[in-house]
Amino acid sequence: MEPIWAPWRIEYIRMEKPAGCILCEKPGEDNDVANHILYRAKKNFIMLNSYPYNPGHLLVVPYRHVDSLERLTSEELHEHIEIVSRCVEVLREAFNPAGFNVGMNLGRVAGAGIDDHIHSHIVPRWQGDNNFMPVVADIRVVPQALEDTYHQLKGRF
Ligand SMILES: [Zn+2]
Q: Which of 51, 67, 72, 117 is most exposed, with the fewest beta carbons within 10 Å of its own?
């Protein structure tokens, strides 16, 4: 896989990480719009990645704070993969990407930014998307892009 050039992620890489778990805290707050939570299912929720590799980069997250796949119940697992599949479907309808990267990074060494609360990434891909957001030299553009993406996807799940 060709890495995506996503220079705005440097902000995330350099930032002081909060002490708590944001994947527990965000759904615990009653502020889904500000937290970019798109959909709440019974055992899992969908949110935008605030430091996306591409526009429409979604996360599917179990509410329960677990650090590995095998610690999920079969009900949680089943719903998780169903929602991942639904994300692919919704992104296809909304943005017509040419492909997707779908997956999980288990453990810091495997690239997990948050390694104690598992989550799946759904990243839509376009031909030549290394140049997809040339505007990113100005990382202030990204928050606006996130708002636009949120409103394009909200209500579709
Ligand atoms: Zn957590």
A: 67
